[in-house]
Amino acid sequence: MVQYTMYIEKDTFVHRLDPRTKLLWLVCVFIWSMTFNHPLWTLMILFVVLVFGFASKTLGRFKYFWYGLLSLFLMCSLMWPFFKRGYTVLMYFGPLPLYYESVWYGLAVGIRLIAMVLAGIITFATTRVEDLLAALCKLRFPYSMAFGVSTIFRFIPTMMGDGMLIIAAQEARGVNLRGGSIWEKAKNSVPIMAPLLVTTLRRTGELAMAVEARAFRAKTERTDLYVPRLEAKDVAVMIMAIALTLIFLYLRLQGYGAILPKEM
């Protein structure tokens, strides 16, 4: 069966970083994004993520994500202004007031989520699942937990690939999956979801038998083919990420980067 993975083989500075460095960078991006709620400041965070992404040379391989990210941004920008109360009324939609600060907050949330999703895509597009497992073990995670986390990220792209194969197979049989109303599309999704569920359950059973056959619960100390080692560039990136995190937190505590100071 065809296998899919998010990892893209490249020889870039980002690919050569230690997996623990990239995990720390990912956590820092999440903290940066949640620190500010002004769109100009969150746009700065997005710019940093894009620079990292262009340096990894992987963004061009995930063009199909851009439509989803655009939809996410539009949804946040249009819906959040009606759930947050600002100070300056911009206009009224019937009985609902629309505040100037709330509009800016909605834009900030949309940009924030794009930055966080992109950071995750870049991290897993530049890190092998085996390297991620080794890094989690180095961080003293229990092996069973590290294996479970790495397995999730290994099989999510595989499920997506299985879904694409099932869609192609059903369309070849004459099932109309793209036309009709939204209710018809929901009804026509059954021929996709049912075989995808069966395939996933079968794969889960095969995985369980495979790991048991390889003495997954053996108590002997495990050895690794790949042992991650921190280098000078990893230390430099870690220091920079932590320093930026402290600076951003300090700026937020001083009142910068917040269109709604009482909100995240």
Summarize the structure in words.
The chain has 264 residues and is mostly helical. The chain has 2 domains: 11-127 and 232-264, no CATH class; 129-229, no CATH class. Helices cover 64% and strands 3% of the residues. The chain contains 9 helices and 2 strands, in the order H-H-H-E-E-H-H-H-H-H-H. It has helices at residues 19-35, 39-56, 64-79, 100-125, 129-138, 143-172, 182-188, 190-213, 232-253; strands spanning 89-93, 96-99. It has a two-stranded antiparallel sheet. Helix 2 (39-56) packs parallel to helix 4. The protein is flat. The mean pLDDT is 85.
The shape is: flat
Count of DSSP strands: 2
The major β-sheet equals: 2 strands, antiparallel
Taken as a percent bin, the fraction of beta residues is under 5%
Measured as a percent range, the helix fraction is: 55-70%
The tally of domains stands at: 2
What's the overall average pLDDT, rounded? 85
Order of helices and strands: HHHEEHHHHHH
Distance between the termini: 45 Å
Number of helices: 9
